[in-house]
Amino acid sequence: MSVEHETDDEQLDSSVDARGSSILSRLPLTEEQLISLGSPVMFVILWEATVQFGFLPEAWFPAPSSIFGTLIELIRNGTLVENTAITLRRLLGAFLLAAVPGIVLGLIMGLNATFRAIMDPLVSMLYPIPKIALLPLIIIIFGFGDRSIIVTASITSFFIILLNTMAGVLEIDDVLLEAAENFHARGFQKFYKVVLPGAMPLIFTGLRLGLGLALIVTIAAEFIASESGLGYFILNSWQILRVEYMFAGFIVIGVIGSLLTLGVEKLGDHLMPWRETDTIR
């Protein structure tokens, strides 16, 4: 009799497991994506609980529910929208100013050993310098405001794009280059068919990293060289002790960074359909 009960229980457990697996398989998200979505939700719940039970001082760590209400208020009155638009405009300008010369010079350095020998010492010397430390000098040259912020952020982004592009060219398998020559691919055809596709994965890695760095430096420069933008908004919120405003600004910056990174990755997937989708990024 007990054996029959155990068999029934096992069948019931198997049925429940199969039904759960069937439900999960019909969801548009993978298990890894569900975990990625669940972890920030759990973090917010834990944060809310620690504030509500008094483990965190609400004066310095407002509850997420309070921050969300403030965020909605700032969006409705236009304050956050206006400052976000200003920061995005500066970020776009800085990124374009970095990406175009960064990719072009990186390709040339990867293809031409002589040019690489000339540029490599200069890049090695300038790359480690914290670009935000150049902001006072850049303000003297370009003045207080947009141009100084854009130039500072673009210099930061430029080097990471340049180095990744050059590395992408240098890592192309020599066998592929020899095969292209055997098929009489020369000049632009060889560049377009072999070099550019071979370097694309690292070019997009550089673009993704460069965009993130440009956002960070844009925000940091707005603390010093501007009276608008998300950086200035956060600094001003700290000065008037509106901590919930600061956290609202942090959330917007995080969302912007996530969306921009996702956008670059999706563009890379579209332009490089041969790339494995399960590559660790």
Automatic annotation (TrEMBL):
Its main location: membrane. Coiled coil: none annotated. It comes from the Archaea. Residues 84-268 form the ABC transmembrane type-1 domain. Keywords: Cell membrane, Membrane, Transmembrane, Transmembrane helix, Transport. The chain crosses the membrane at residues 91-113, 125-144, 150-170, 213-235, 247-264. It is a multi-pass membrane protein. This is ABC transporter permease.
